[in-house]
TrEMBL record:
GO terms for molecular function: hydrolase activity. Keywords: Hydrolase. InterPro entries: Peptidase_S1_PA (IPR009003), Peptidase_S1_PA_chymotrypsin (IPR043504), Peptidase_S1A (IPR001314), Trypsin_dom (IPR001254). Its EC number is 3.4.21.-. It comes from the Bacteria. Residues 5-247 form the Peptidase S1 domain. The keyword Hydrolase applies. It comes from Pelomonas candidula. This is Trypsin-like serine protease.
Length: 292
């Protein structure tokens, strides 16, 4: 499922590292919530590349990042309750266990502003909803240009993707508890193929500021595909992102309903270096939340 930020801004490796931006199975985006858990789109790790498909064996999930030479493999999943037994939301957590991306003893790129220790019980959390007055930053790695020409002729130029992270700013719309939309912004930037699973970052409205993850990219809406020359066989899987000529918007799965489940999963993370502090250190900002 190739879905990057078209015409977006390059994200430096230091920033990718600080935000925990990773690549999932070579073609999707994802975010490290802490050293052991990756948040991404469910279709990125399903056997048929569909949100409601069976999950592949966790060990088949490969996690890489521009800021390290390490490669991690999944060992388990956190399948959200809403997706059991019938998947309906394009979101999942991949557990890396001890095969994680830690390196050189440096500080791992936890998201900023870890939650207050006296409130480290996720049962007290409630997700806060995005507003249409928010400005969010979307991150993803994927397409950087669209296709042009005609399939089967010398003019055929497929959509290109650099495989490096890009970002762009958007105003969310069509916001509900479960989803939101990011339309192409005023300078033509829009999420794209390869950005699936990439995080939407938003400034927190309380509890010390910092950034929070509002959701992950799921699908995008293409505006067209380059035509096929007369007499040329239709390419396999045509139309797909390699032949897209544009996109108008992308759809996202909100983390709002999942903050308790995400927090509970993170508290199960092992921390061989410092087990006593594992629970507190494992609590990032999932989305701007309030204590009930």
């Amino acid at each position: 499922m190739q879905q990057p930020i078209i015409a977006g801004n390059n994200v430096e490796e230091a920033t990718q590292r600080r935000l925990g931006l990773v690549t999932v199975n070579g073609g999707c985006s994802g975010t490290l919530l802490n050293r052991y858990w990756v948040l991404t789109a469910r279709h990125c790790v399903s056997t048929n590349s569909h949100p409601d498909g069976p999950l592949m064996q966790a060990q088949q999930v490969r996690i890489t990042a521009a800021w390290t030479s390490f490669t991690a493999h999944g060992t388990d999943y956190n399948e959200f309750a809403v997706n059991r037994p019938t998947p309906s939301r394009d979101i999942v957590m991949v557990y890396l266990g001890l095969g994680d991306l830690a390196w050189d003893g440096e500080n791992f790129p936890y998201l900023t502003d870890a939650t207050d220790p006296q409130h480290d019980d996720p049962a007290t959390w409630a997700g806060a909803r995005l507003k249409d007055t928010d400005t969010v930053t979307q991150y993803g790695r994927g397409l950087t240009s669209y296709a042009s020409g005609v399939v089967g002729t010398p003019s055929e130029t497929r959509a290109q993707g650099s495989g490096t992270y890009h970002s762009a700013s958007f105003t969310p719309s069509s916001i509900s508890e479960t989803r939101y939309v990011l339309q192409a912004n005023g300078i033509g930037q829009v999420g794209a193929g390869g950005d699936s699973g990439g995080p939407t970052m938003v400034a927190r409205r309380g509890r010390g500021g910092g950034l929070a993850i509002a959701g992950v990219q799921s699908t995008c809406t293409a505006t067209g595909y380059i035509p096929v020359a007369t007499g040329v066989a239709t390419p396999p899987n045509y139309p797909d992102w390699s032949y897209a000529t544009g996109e108008s918007a992308c759809q996202y799965v909100s983390t709002e309903p999942f903050v308790k489940e995400i927090g509970a999963a993170l508290q199960r993370s092992p921390d061989p270096k410092n087990p006593a502090s594992a629970a507190i250190r494992a609590l990032p900002d999932i989305v701007d939340y309030v204590l009930q």
